[in-house]
Amino acid sequence: MPRASDKRERLIRSADHLILRQGFKQTTLSDIARDSGVPLGNVYYYFKTKDDIGHTVVRSRVAAMQALLDRYAIHEDPKRQLIEFLRFPLQIRDDLARNGCPLGTLAYELSRPDSQFREDSRELLQVVLDWSTTRFEAIDPDQGADLALQFVATLQGMSLVANALDDPQVVERLVERLRAWIESL
To answer: Three-class SS of residue 86?
Structure first.
């Protein structure tokens, strides 16, 4: 018999997957229950509302990205850290072309003026922006914040264009340009 925490984790994974694929607004509790194999009535034991699941998915994505960024921080050279991070979009290029960026698409959807998720939406991109800013400031203290903003904006634009064109090669081409740009700093 599955443990309670297993059901909760299945619900979170299903919600995360469905929200990425079809958006938060279009994802229902029924969809999440069906996809996770957890009876709909049991969903309410773990999450009182769909909004509770939404907040949990945001925290989960932010934590996963922070853990990923921490792995790249093992290199001493900030340029090397940034360049190593560029392996990640290459690894998920097909998913980026199919669904867009897991952070950016959700941040955009949740950032609407009438959304109760506005603070959560900021966290989704802020985690990468903060990490990047630290690296770029080590390279160029005067322009580090602007360079980081350009870096994150390029990553998000790359994901949007790859998704709109359903073309993973957009990711490959722009990652290569980003790599060359970082090396030139």
So the answer is: coil
What is the average pLDDT across 108-130?
A: 87
Enumerate long-range contacts of 29-36, CB under 8 Å, 24 or more apart: 29/53, 36/7, 36/10, 36/11
Tell me 133's DSSP state: H
Amino acid residing at 86: L
Mean pLDDT, the chain, whole residue set: 93
Cα separation, 36 vs 8, in Å, equals: 9
Cβ neighbour number for residue 138 with a 10 Å cutoff: 14
Q: What whole-number distance in Å separates Cα of residue 60 and Cα of residue 58?
A: 5
Give residue-wise pLDDT tens across range 13-61: 999 999 999 999 999 999 999 999 999 999 999 999 999 999 999 999 9
- What is residue 103's predicted lDDT score, i.e. its pLDDT? 93
**Per-residue pLDDT at 11 exceeds 50:** yes
Give the sign of the dihedral formed by CA 49, CA 53, CA 59, CA 62. Answer: negative
| Same domain? 93 vs 73 | yes
- Name the domain count of the chain: 2
Return phi, psi of residue 142, to 5°: -75, -30
For residue 10, the domain's CATH number is: 1.10.10.60
| Residue 132 and residue 143 in contact, taking contact as beta carbons nearer than 8 Å | no
User: Residue 130: what pLDDT?
Assistant: 98
- Model pTM score: 0.89
